[in-house]
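Data card: per-record layout.
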Amino acid sequence: MIQQAAGVSKSTVYAHYPNKEALFVAVVEAECARFLKTINEITFSGKCLADILLAIAQAYLEIVLSHDALALYRMVVAEAPRLPELGRRFYLAGPATINNIVAHRLEVAVSNGELDLGGIGLVSAASLFVNMVRGEAHLQCLTHPNTPASAVQRDQWAKDAVFAYLRAFALLT
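The structure for this 173-residue chain is written out next.
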């Protein structure tokens, strides 16, 4: 299908990718990059930490709860036991990347005196936030494929995660 969509021969495809697994990994990485482009395009200047985290949470839920992202996730999880490199590359291109984006924002907030992570490292603190955002929402959408989350529900999950996270780590002013 990829060869046909690109309008090239099979030999051209395999000149760039040594096997189907390498091609599969490249497709997964490209999809992750496409999904995360939205989050990378958010502008943060002049916003308070709560607004920044809410914007990230809302954009992230919009992505990870989309039909395409859920399908990609299901596929990677199903194939990871057979193709562990696929699972690893998916993690690095998707979840680890969002953790790093959030970690950068948290680093700015810590240096501005807005957060006290209590000795938790930036990447771990970012992972906690991302998992708070994704956790229940992702599980519900994965297990109820015929009942997509509404915009109102996604917004509530995002707000709840931001509220709980800031309640745990924000410095009182």
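Known properties of this structure: The domain at 33-169 is CATH 1.10.357.10 (Tetracycline Repressor; domain 2). The two ends are 57 Å apart (CA to CA).

See the next section for split statistics.
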